[in-house]
Amino acid sequence: MGVFDDKKFEQLDWMSQITEGIESELNGLLARLPERIELDYDSITSFMDSGYGSPQLSIGSVVRKLIRIQSGKSVAWEDEQPIANCFEFQTSEGGCTLDMENKKITGTISLIKIKNTLDDDFLQSRMGARGLEHMRNIDWSGPGAIARANEIMEVIGDMDDCIKGRSGRKKYLAIRNEMARIFRSNEWRIRDTELADKIGKWIAAYVKDGNLAAFSNFCKVKVMTHQGGPIYSIEEQE
Amino acid sequence: MKDTIGEIFAKFGNSKAVFKSKLEGDSIKFDLIEQYDPATADLDHNDIIVKLAVANYRENFDKYELYRSANNKTAVMRDIFVSLKKAFESASPLKNPKQSNLWKWFDYDSITKTQERTEAIILLYRYVHANTDRNLVFSGGSSNPHAKNFLAILEKMKEKYERR
Q: What is the pTM of this model?
């Protein structure tokens, strides 16, 4: 096995290898959510949006709570809506009656999964976005940070103008914008959202305090882009 | 003895939280089957303060407490002040009543801080309501004896309640 082997890619069936579908934990999460769930009185009132107007039940609020129950955590708002779009409500013929005075429901309300995977266009648009958020929270002008940011820019390539500058903040913006462009245009052909999200975290870890394992992982991804194939995983250094 | 605004609001009931579901896009709305009508409350509905309370009746819903009437005393008092200011303008003999010290006090300093003061304002409102037309304007303007009374009462209130 070589250092630059992509184990995840090798494990994919031939069809997936050809189509280069995007692997995403969000699809995994969607798969774990029930195909159909009939909401009883307690679920309806627990999922219901409690406001001062008339009560309502939105697919988003039900899915948000199902995700929290299923995975023990919440997902970003931007990811939640596309998952909610994979579901629809179905009620019994003529609607149902919700009697909150006597805590009972007449008729049924069900949530049904109508799509089993998220659109690749959406996943591509969110590629790496969560990782890049990590870069915002570090000090880009701290000791050695500017030099390390320059090294990152050298690895990314074609960023000579920004390397010459001395502003840490401008370097951060340049790296963030360039990586966002690379992800959006699929230039590096990264086809796994988890891997893409790690890239921003690795950049942040290296610039922050010179984490060499993080820098090595980042460089490895960049080298693998020269192989010309899709990238699903790398052999990471911890 | 008339009910206080608080007592009036306490006599209002609430809607029963029984809903019919309606599918709307990606959500289900629950519409009340029967909305509570405050005009059915056991009150003297000819009383002007009751009328104001009915007009300002609101109820809030939350899924734990269900429907509760919002004790909207502030809105009733606000309506009373708006009406009294309108009456003041028709009662005053001045060309520009809003420039008078009495107006300025009534406009800025007549906040109902105590129950006694609130009661006084309500009694004054009842007096004005009984002696003005539908638009709360004194017929004959400042020459109307009730208009003079109204201003005299306000002056007395100013003397008693003005912040020093």
A: 0.70
